[in-house]
């Protein structure tokens, strides 16, 4: 898997799920803007999260494909994607189950009040597939249209061990990425060292 830098989880959700488009990954040398807009939209403020899904849809509806910036070199990026591709495909062939997800948002939490180790748990899990047409093309990630999930293990652990009720995701058509992150933030207020990274985007198993 790999991490996206400088991206917008709301934008990725809109492109993958709402618009049924694919995304690609760009190496650090080519890092211009993690979501490359059309020329007509170049004046939009970089890295500004839209206030609503409607705002994003209106401002980004002409973008056919998004390029997500990573902190990897071209060689590192291709090696990581190739390894991810073969691992995902092997698991499907052997187990019949897809375990590759685009994770949006990340809860940073601690096992105890004295623990110095920051643990990270994804909040929204979009099942995706990684593919390319030939060896010269870039890998593309697209939504498999399977159920989008919240982190059930995290929800169970937070409730059982910390008494925190992290809300599950609503049905797909009712998912509001920004609102869900805010709901999780509200739920964890009893743990002052716990935080929500609202910009986290990770491709992984």
Please tag this protein with its features.
single chain, 205 residues, alpha+beta, eight-stranded mixed beta sheet, 5 helices, 8 strands, 30% helix
Description:
The chain is of the alpha+beta class. The protein is 30% helix and 24% strand. It has helices spanning 9-18, 53-60, 74-95, 152-162, 177-187, and strands spanning 2-4, 23-26, 66-69, 101-109, 119-131, 140-143, 149-150, 195-204. Strands 1, 2, 3, 4, 5, 6, 7 and 8 form an eight-stranded mixed sheet that branches. A hairpin with an 8-residue loop joins strand 5 (119-131) and strand 6 (140-143). The longest helix has 22 residues, at 74-95. The protein is globular and about 50 Å long. The N and C termini lie close together (7 Å).
Describe how the helices and strands are arranged.
Layout: E1 2-4, H1 9-18, E2 23-26, H2 53-60, E3 66-69, H3 74-95, E4 101-109, E5 119-131, E6 140-143, E7 149-150, H4 152-162, H5 177-187, E8 195-204
Parallel strand pairs: 2-3
Antiparallel strand pairs: 1-8, 2-6, 4-5, 4-8, 5-6, 5-7
